[in-house]
Write a structure and sequence with these properties.
The complex is a heterodimer of chains A (305) and B (338). Chain A has 305 residues and is an all-alpha fold. Helices cover 77% and strands 0% of the residues of chain A. Chain A has helices at 2-30, 33-37, 44-54, 60-72, 86-91, 94-121, 126-140, 143-157, 169-199, 202-209, 214-242, 246-251, 257-267, 270-298. Chain B is globular, with a radius of gyration of 21 Å. In chain B, helix 4 (128-141) crosses helix 6 (160-172). Chain A: Its main location: membrane.
């Protein structure tokens, strides 16, 4: 077990290093932050001074080496924009992202599971048809469009809810709902097909031949097995959402990690971009590790000793 | 007055409504089985042997399955008229099942203990600890060593033969009056198959359950069953005491099956006999003897009128055949030809 975790940890470090390296070079191609930071018409001398101050006058490979060594020590540099440690700037945004992602995951999973189970159990009925059409629409609708439409209806026309920002439950409703729609649609579709697959398994027939009552057969023999792929999917979605739902956070002006990274990219605030991306990658990998471990709990065939 | 049979099936007819038409899976099957008897049912895939057994206790999906008509009298009750709830109480308790392919018939994510304990807890209301004692007992009964420790393991930690033993333990857990084994040895290699058959014979001696053994292996039936029933195209073609049916077959299909078995002594010299033609298309409305198109002895009557299952002339009591032709006379004529 400890060996397994060690391997996973090394894999995670390599993955984070790879991601940060790519982001480091790509962001430097984008442009010169000194020009953005100084007012229009600043002198060449001012620009050079600022570049030297930010460490941008050194050869690229040297900048890279310095950045990597600093990162190993947990130092992601000082934000160009905020003049504070870049990682602090990103970490401050985590609670908001957790709040939104958690809401979407909880409601999306609940609604998606119930809808998926109904669709599978009521095979061939109107209920299944309605659920599947709704899920298809939910999955196919771009979240930014859905977000904007909800703002138009509930905030602009009806005036019931704020258009953006955060702080109260009312602020959470629209972005939470938008993400829940996507999450629940994905889960409903996967759970339905997974349930229908498992219902055909021989061991379900065995369970019924034992005289077990339908709810026992459903929960212990069908759902228990059908959940395995769904858990993986929830893990992937959780990783994506906790990394900051870039689009939704932007549409609803939600002060999360996704939004701060987008702002950093616009301002070419390299340290914040790097800190944000490294954090998001680490979260994604951590969630995947948790899913892996959970998998072992759900499925004894791949349980590790 | 003779005792009523444990199970009596009358005119059981089962169909499946599929997009490519109605499949006539079981047609007018009637037979009875005495308490303590072991009945072997042989037939090829699609002969209706499994479907008829599953349909008796509501284990086929409806739809697409449909019981067209018939009665299944088990222990004085018509199973086809029972409510869902009554069927739940009957399955596993009074009729136990052992299924084919132990690789897929056990739930991969539940322990062996749990899977054997389920019917005990359901039907006898046993507590977890009571059930546990019985589970260990059952595992020892079916010949699984280290039962206590093995009970905590999962199906993938067992070999095929051991899983089949577990399946049998599940089937007999509640001491059912009738045990239906559906191709229970088919997925096993020959030596393991022999061990399982030994086990079943021993269990029968110990607990005296009535057994219906469904298989396509004539050898298994010969070694295990008292009576045999040969099915083809959803019908019973021939039935009776094993010795009589195997040594003195009266149906052309049984004869063809027996003739196609390897005998060993003529190694490499002859090709094995092969029944000509293909299995019947069950989407066609059954007319006449289903085996007629492949039967070299078929008469015109065979093709238009379905023969009833009646006592075979000059044979032992209980040997029945559904045939318009006289197989013995036909074979004599064939062999007597110069």
């Amino acid at each position: 077990m400890s060996r397994y975790l060690l391997v996973k940890l090394l894999e995670a470090l390599v993955a984070i290093w790879g991601v940060v390296t790519i982001v480091f070079f790509v962001s430097r191609v984008l442009g010169d932050p000194a020009i953005l930071l100084l007012p229009v018409g600043a002198s060449q001398q001012d620009l050079d001074t600022l570049r030297a101050g930010l460490g941008l006058d050194k050869p690229l490979i040297q900048q890279y080496a310095v950045a990597m060594l600093d990162m190993l020590r947990g130092n992601f540099g000082i934000s160009f924009q905020h003049n504070r440690p870049a990682m602090d700037v990103v970490l401050e945004r985590m609670p908001a992202t957790f709040e939104l992602a958690g809401t979407a995951l909880i409601f999306g999973t609940l609604i998606g599971s119930v809808a998926g189970a109904i669709a599978a159990l009521k095979r061939g009925t109107l209920a299944e048809f309605i659920v599947m059409i709704a899920a298809l629409l939910g999955q196919a609708t771009p979240v930014f469009w859905l977000g904007i439409m909800l703002i138009l209806v509930f905030s602009v026309d009806l005036g019931w809810l704020p258009t953006g920002g955060s702080g109260t439950i009312a602020h959470l409703v629209l972005p939470g709902l938008t993400l829940s729609v996507f999450v629940s649609a994905s889960i409903a579709r996967l759970l339905r097909s997974s349930l229908l697959d498992i219902m055909r398994e021989d061991y379900v027939r065995t369970a019924r031949a034992k005289g077990l009552l339908p709810h026992t057969v459903f929960f212990w023999h069908i759902a228990r097995n059908a959940l395995i792929p769904v858990v993986t999917m929830i893990g992937i979605i959780a990783g994506e959402l906790l990394g900051g739902s870039v689009v939704i956070e932007t549409v609803f002006a939600w002060p999360g990690v996704g939004r701060i990274v987008v702002q950093a990219i616009q301002a070419q605030d390299f340290p914040v971009i790097q800190a944000g991306v490294a954090l998001v990658a680490a979260i994604f990998i951590l969630i995947n590790l948790l899913v892996d471990l959970l998998y072992g709990v759900l499925d004894p065939r791949i349980r590790r000793r | 007055m003779t005792k009523a049979p444990l199970l009596e099936i009358r005119n059981l007819t089962v169909a499946f409504d599929t997009p490519s038409g109605t499949v006539h899976a079981v047609n007018d099957v009637s037979y009875s089985i005495e308490e303590g008897e072991t009945l072997g049912i042989v037939g090829e895939s699609g002969s209706g042997k499994s479907v008829h057994a599953l349909s008796m206790v509501g284990l086929i999906a409806t739809p697409p399955g449909r019981i067209v008509r018939g009665e299944v009298i088990f222990n004085g009750r018509n199973l086809l008229a029972l409510s869902q709830r009554e069927l739940f109480d009957l399955r596993g308790r009074e009729i136990g099942f052992v299924f084919q392919d132990p690789m897929t018939s056990l739930n991969p994510v539940l322990t062996i203990e749990r899977q054997i304990a389920e019917p005990l807890r359901r039907h006898f209301g046993m507590s977890a600890s009571q059930a546990r004692i019985r589970v260990i007992e059952l595992l020892e009964l079916v010949g699984i060593p280290d039962a206590e420790q093995r009970a905590r393991q999962y199906p993938h930690e067992f070999s095929g033969g051991m899983r089949q033993r577990v399946m049998i333990a599940i089937g007999i857990s509640c001491n059912p009056k009738l045990l239906i084994a559906d191709e229970a040895t088919t997925a096993l290699d020959v030596t393991v198959q022999a061990q399982i058959l030994d086990l079943v014979r021993e269990l029968k001696r110990k607990i005296g359950t009535t057994v219906i053994w469904i298989t396509h292996d004539m050898g298994v039936v010969a070694g295990l069953a008292d009576t045999v029933q040969v099915m083809y195209g959803g019908r019973i073609m021939e039935s009776g005491p094993v010795r009589s049916v195997f040594y003195d077959p009266r149906g052309a299909y049984t004869w063809g099956l027996l003739k196609s078995l390897p005998h060993g002594e003529r190694r490499g010299t002859n090709r094995l006999y092969q029944i000509p033609g293909n299995p019947p298309d069950l989407t066609q409305e059954p007319v006449g003897d289903p085996f007629a198109p492949r039967n070299p002895f078929a008469t015109d009557r065979c093709r238009v009128e379905t023969p009833p299952l009646v006592n075979a002339p000059d044979s032992v009591p209980g040997h029945k055949v559904a045939a318009w032709y006289d197989l013995r006379a036909e074979i004599q004529r064939m062999e007597g030809r110069p």
